[in-house]
Amino acid sequence: MTKFEHQLAAKGREIRLELIGVLDEDCELLPLADDLEGETITIDLGAIERMNQAGAKLWHEFVDLLEASGFAVVLGRCSPAIVTHLNRSGVGNATVESFAMPYFCPECDEARTLWAKASDLSDGGDSIEPPVKRCPQCDLVMQFDDDAKSYFGFLSGESRPRRKAPSSQPQPNAEAAAGTPFLLMVLAVAIVIAGAALALFLAN
Predict the structure, then answer these.
(1) What pTM value is reported for the model?
(2) What span, in angstroms and rounded, lies between the C-alpha atoms of 8 and 183?
(3) What is the average pLDDT score of the chain?
């Protein structure tokens, strides 16, 4: 089984893209943006298991290519790995349609992943609370298996906005730049003193 797969479907001007597996330096994500035509692309991220730093960089470049082509980007079924990334880097101009919510049933001792529509929770402001869910096996109320405030940060606007990758060009040292005029002044004074001393020597 490959680490990264995709499935693509188009209906009119709407495209649905499902990404499966791992987003890392080996995933062939950017070529998927080639030759796509449409107005809206919904990216199903429910089967993304994890994303590393290199994969995050490729993901941002991929979304930027789509938006530069005129697509409205919709993120559907964001897995816990994607939710973690959105809370770190922000949603940007994309729209989150739905996402995973982790629950745990202490009676059955099992973790369960449920799906929620972002529109059903995004009106809670800064105090979004996870909805009450019952275990499908024992019917007892399950526990939300994360910190609600941080997990729902991408919905409440507390997640940081997307940032561009830092430039690879070396930046000038601020202290060195600030000290350059002083060094030039000292050098000029030294030249003047040396010239005066030479003139005095020749005169004698």
Answers:
(1) 0.74
(2) 63
(3) 84
DSSP-assigned letters across all residues of the chain: --SEEEEEEEETTEEEEEEEEEESTT---GGGGTT---SEEEEEEEEEEEE-HHHHHHHHHHHHHHHHTTPEEEEESB-HHHHHHHHHH--TT-EE-EEEEEEEETTTTEEEEEEEEHHHHGGGTT---PPP-B-TTT-PBPEE-S-HHHHTHHHHT-SPPP-PPPPSSPPPPHHHHHHHHHHHHHHHHHHHHHHHHHHHHHH-
What pLDDT score does 125 carry? 55
CB–CB of 130/92 below 8 Å? no
- Checking if the pLDDT of 162 tops 60, the result is no
* Torsion of Cα atoms, 141 then 144 then 149 then 150, to 10°: -170
* C-alpha span between 84 and 154 (Å, rounded): 9
Span 4-156: which CATH code? 3.30.750.24
Mean pLDDT of 95-113: 96
Overall average pLDDT of the 61-85 stretch: 96
pLDDT band at 64 (very low <50, low <70, confident <90, very high): very high
Closest CA to 100 of 155, 24, 160: 155
Burial class, 28, CB count within 10 angstroms (exposed 0-12 / middle 13-18 / buried 19+): exposed
What is the side-by-side strand order in the sheet with 40-51? Answer: 4-11, 14-23, 40-51, 72-76, 95-96
